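Lab notebook page, bench 4
Experiment: in silico fold of construct C2
Operator: M.H.
Input chain length: 338 residues
Purpose: comparison with the prior construct
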Amino acid sequence: MNRRPLLPSRLPVDGYVLALLGTVGLAALLPASGTAARIAGAAATGAVALLFFLYGARLSTREALDGLRHWRLHLTVLGCTFLVFPLLGLAARGLVPGVLAPQLYGGFLFLCLVPSTIQSSIAFTSIARGNVPAAICAGSFSSLAGIVLTPLLAAALLGGSTGGLSADALVKIVLQLLVPFLAGQLLRPWVGGFLVRRKKVLGYVDRGSILLVVYTAFSQGMVAGIWHLVTPGRLALLLAAEAVLLALMLALTWYGAGRLGFGRADRIAIQFAGSKKSLAAGLPMASVLFGAHASLAVLPLMLFHQMQLMVCAVLAKRRARDPEEPAPGPSAPAALPG
């Protein structure tokens, strides 16, 4: 049992990221075009609807409502995800064109608009001995809010990159994202148990659907000939800008939560839930919002996703070595970073 995870645990890139990179490579070598592109596009549309149906069916409304007791923490995470991140993304406009290429800035801003993660936020919070129930609820609230807020923010802030919030875009958002999600919520009493029992198999369905979306998006980019616009130097500068963005959010969530009076366990949950972005939610949304331009739009998110996993894995292990927080008292000071 210990031999199987030995190799993946030593790799700097997790297996799923390797699969994503392999899918990008396949799209570069064998892009779908003509009839194949139409079939792949239709399959990707169905995959996006399936993803959001599964999100809705697996999200426990009762657990989310129970988590409202910790409303200050959840509002803090939502503020980081949908206010602070977008403001930093807008500020990064000043880096165009010197640091961020104009064709990549739209994707950089988009990654600032997508919801937080659920699984990795919970995992890192657990490793760091933080408030795991709060991380579960915060990730769930963020995903739920993102279904509405991310398309609205993208339409308002990206404008021409997404084609604006046209009637057609609204119909796509409702039919491909909101309707399947609501259907999953409504059918949860009947299908929820089935999905929980087949969690591992459905994980492959989730990831396979996202790989299909990535292949379709990058195939469109190859056929349109947009990749000659992205040089290795531009990619290096994009990575540098994303490293600064991640560092800022990790610092703001940790020290900001301390200034707001949260204890160590809550600060850990806020830091990991408020500083990360969901690749699983962002990729399908980008395919709906950006259409043929989705490949450049999702590239910054894919790079940021891998960066956040590597950095937060190290940070979580460091936080796990922090001394235990003293028992709260009438004049107990906020916990200091370890």
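Observations: The two ends are 34 Å apart (CA to CA). The chain is about 75% helix and 0% strand.
Next step: discuss at group meeting.
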